[in-house]
Amino acid sequence: MSKVLLVIGDATEVLDTMYPLFRIPEDGFQVDVAAPEKRLYHMVQHEQPPGWDITQETAGYHLQADIAFRDVKPEEYAGLFISGGRAPEYLRYDPDLLNLTRHFFETGKPVASVCHGIEIIAAADCIQGKKVTTVAKCELDATTAGATYVDETVVIDGNLITARTWHDNTLFLKEFMRLLKESV
Length: 184
Prior knowledge:
The structure is a single chain. The protein has one domain (3-183): 3-Layer(aba) Sandwich (Rossmann fold). The longest helix has 15 residues, at 169-183. The protein contains 6 helices and 12 strands. The N and C termini lie close together (10 Å). It has helices at residues 14-23, 87-91, 95-106, 118-123, 139-144, 169-183, and strands spanning 3-7, 12-13, 30-35, 40-47, 56-64, 67-68, 79-82, 111-114, 131-132, 148-149, 154-157, 160-163. Strand 11 and strand 12 (160-163) form a beta hairpin. The strands form 3 sheets. The chain has a 7-stranded mixed β-sheet, with helices on both faces. A 3-stranded mixed β-sheet has the order 2-4-5. By secondary structure, it is α/β, with parallel strands linked by helices.
């Protein structure tokens, strides 16, 4: 069975994570949850209440990581899925995760990034010259790293597929699954 690596950390967004966790296996792919350590992680929910200029964060579910970044053998995986939420703000400093991310780009395997996940790809220096989308408040992260930002539901550029937020999950996962199936 082909495997997909799902990247999380504390403050990973619930819907950015749980939808792919259950959707990807529907097409016969195994999902391995990867994080800084093999332990239980605390997810969060993001919602923009009426009248607010920014999202409100509340506690969500918990999710156990199957493997630590340092123990991942990237050649065993067909694709990479990077969840959003606030987790990427600190995960982008993890050298093992950055090396894993570079592997997927160097080998042309499908990479999916939603919301703040773009911060990890930018930190790994993998979006130079690419067209991407992300949550609007991460536009600067993308453009500073040399990408062209567009406000679209889903953007595919080579092996990279990006979405703005969990609101785009249906089309986002449909296209990611298409890329995965084509690549294996």
